[in-house]
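FIELD: query
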Amino acid sequence: MKHLKTLLILLFVTALLLTACAPAGEPVLKATGNVTSETRWTDAQLQKMELVSADYTDKEGVTTTYTGVPILALLEEAGMKDGATAVVFVASDGFTSEVTLDELKGCANCIVAFNDDGTLRIVMPGFSGKQQVKGVIELQVK
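FIELD: result
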């Protein structure tokens, strides 16, 4: 009985160690298109990047502060190629919105933000509400 208890404790500790070493979830965001290689990020990887805050005021006048990763930092990590001109934000429901790279370069606090429900969204202060894509899963570089 003593050996069984020791074995169970050893198996439990081993399982904990293996869980800690496993990848932190499935990718939740990817960059595709005019990049050096398709890049995928898990939620844990995004959370470890430099995070910034951005305020967004919706059409009802309610301002919310979001935290997330600057879009330009993600594009840089993905190796955006010379000649890129725009980025299309793709939502999980198929909705898309496009902004020019010039517009994006002028927006240091345009971010891929974390929602409380575990999804991501685009927050671009001063831009159209149609560009605030909820449930974003892909950044397509054109």
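FIELD: remark
Residues 2-21 form the longest helix (20 residues).
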